[in-house]
Automatic annotation (TrEMBL), chains A, B:
It comes from Wenxinia marina DSM 24838. Residues 78-231 form the Ribosomal RNA small subunit methyltransferase E methyltransferase domain. Keywords: Cytoplasm, Methyltransferase, rRNA processing, S-adenosyl-L-methionine, Transferase. Its EC number is 2.1.1.193. The lineage of its organism: Bacteria, Pseudomonadati, Pseudomonadota, Alphaproteobacteria, Rhodobacterales. The keyword Cytoplasm applies. It catalyses: uridine(1498) in 16S rRNA + S-adenosyl-L-methionine = N(3)-methyluridine(1498) in 16S rRNA + S-adenosyl-L-homocysteine + H(+). This is Ribosomal RNA small subunit methyltransferase E. GO terms for cellular component: cytoplasm. InterPro entries: Alpha/beta_knot_MTases (IPR029028), PUA-like_sf (IPR015947), RsmE (IPR006700), RsmE_MTase_dom (IPR046886), RsmE_PUA-like (IPR046887), tRNA_m1G_MTases_N (IPR029026).
Amino acid sequence: MASDIRLYVDQPLGAGSTVPLSREQAHYLFGVMRLGVGAGLRLFNGRDGEWVAEVAEAGKRGGVLAVSEQTAPLRPPPDLWLMFAPIKKARTDFIVEKAVEMGAARIVPVQTDFTNSERVRTDRLQIHAIEAAEQCGATVVPEVAELARLSTLLDRWPDRRLMFCDEGLAGTPPALPDAPGPWAILIGPEGGFSDAERTRLQGMEGAHPVALGPRILRADTAAVAALTLWQAALGDWR
Amino acid sequence: MASDIRLYVDQPLGAGSTVPLSREQAHYLFGVMRLGVGAGLRLFNGRDGEWVAEVAEAGKRGGVLAVSEQTAPLRPPPDLWLMFAPIKKARTDFIVEKAVEMGAARIVPVQTDFTNSERVRTDRLQIHAIEAAEQCGATVVPEVAELARLSTLLDRWPDRRLMFCDEGLAGTPPALPDAPGPWAILIGPEGGFSDAERTRLQGMEGAHPVALGPRILRADTAAVAALTLWQAALGDWR
């Protein structure tokens, strides 16, 4: 019997392969979700697409899944980074969840001049990203990068267009050039960009300021809105 | 000294008018936000735009604000409803917050065939809408309607286009007709629409099914994404 459960695993997936379960995975599948031997679920590992598997052995401390057939090919998200300035824990968690659902390939917490972010627990955010990928049907889990200063990231900026969302532009229609290739979205921090940051961003080659309407959006709202504009114009929503 | 505080009030606002404060408002301004006599803040009432005011009297159980000049005209959001099926309390609160930030004019919780929503506390959601409007700079607070069955709403559907977001369409690019006038957005419930609902929606004049990308979005993510598409194409983000 197939369940709606999707589980991210590390192991290679292919017809006839078996996946041994960790204690935590066994607890989740058998203790929390009450699966028994013979129950079906779907697996993905970020490399081999999505596969159906069946519980072959179920125990308190482990178990084995038997993989049968592929249900979806690997569908990597577009080469898009989401950069944002984390402030409060709950909102940061939300932004990570939203970035995964909306199809960012990499999630980059940044420290700006006007954010005094508490330390960011990258490992915890990475677990949120895995859970969001399990939930939303993604076959790849975006990487959550370590917190870095925005100025440092801009010092060594790669060949990648940058859509930066700036409240200072309220009233301008959002427009993106029809330019494929790697992109990053930068969500303005809740205190806004500093003058130095804004000047620097505006002067960067390949940087495109975008306004997100006439109201002030919270960072998590702005992240979804910016990802929507990008995905509809240039990404995998087309 | 001007603070960043924006307060929604009931009273008429105009140059020279005074606003008596309720006990709750006095507690918030003087107890929580620590404003004193002479402190500045901004007021809106959904009718007269945004005005600067100054604390004229401050007490434990009340106070008076003196209104001086208008800082923004009334800017009503476009005539857009956001309809959604509430499930969990926290997500419902988020959807209301997001709908206000994104500029919906009316927020309509609906019960669909596959949602068994707990009772919706409209009064509590209306307070969330007010707080979101205070936060995001809106000059109008959207009305939160009472929970109604989707089928009942469709039985007496007005002359209003309907964008309905349907996971079943994943893979189709999101497209809206260039049709101004009143609209509603309907977010699919987390369990999806029933076949009967989908058939009925597809057969409605002025209904436009829209896919929100290849991944499954949570209802609060879908609300922001759908509002973004609409606002950028037809609303006040243009």
